Amino acid sequence: MFMKISNREMSFVLALLLSYVALAKTLTPPAQDGWIVFSKVKFTAKYYKELKEYFLTPLFDSRIRALEGTEIQLRGHYMPFDLDDKKTIIISKFPYAACFFCGGAGPESVAEITFVGKVPKFKADQVITVKGILKLNDLDVNHLNFLLLQAELVTNPNP
To answer: In 89-120, which positions are buried (b, 16+ CB within 10 angstroms) versus exposed (e)?
Structure first.
């Protein structure tokens, strides 16, 4: 047995469903703060024979691995490096004088950011906010351990 629904009732139900979908989109959680995620990673010194040098290598547990492929947001200081890939930059949780490259912080405080399009112009130590898809790297010493792919500049970051 079918219930007869008027056009007016159908319009109301449709409007209610569309309102629900719109509300659900606004309730989507914001991108996770990457620095908090990265700070939970443990590192161990590993010797690379081909380079004859030790490097700090991350030990990504299942909680961190579960975040790979999800959107992460980072607010940090632009580090001026001349990289081969012109769509890639490096940002640091700390200013240049206290960053990982100066020996003032650990590898969990820097990230490699690869933009979708052209990289905006930044000044050294300029604080920027970016979001992108997290990729973890524990094998290639030519790249940082934390990469954001398909990254975009966040113009109105949450404080």
So the answer is: bbbbbbeeeebbeeeeeebbbbbbbbbeeebe
Class of the CATH domain delimited by 30-153: mainly beta
Task: Delimit the domains of the chain by residue range.
Answer: 30-153
Specify the pTM: 0.76
- 3-state class of 119 per DSSP? coil
- 55-69 tens-digit pLDDT: 999 999 999 999 999
Q: What's the helix, strand, coil split of the chain in %, to 5?
A: 25, 35, 40
CA distance 145 to 88: 14
Confidence band for 102, pLDDT divided at 50, 70 and 90: confident
Coil vs helix vs strand at 14: helix
154 burial type by CB count under 10 A (0-12 exposed, 13-18 middle, 19+ buried): middle
User: Are 66 and 114 spatial neighbours (Cβ–Cβ below 8 Å)?
Assistant: no
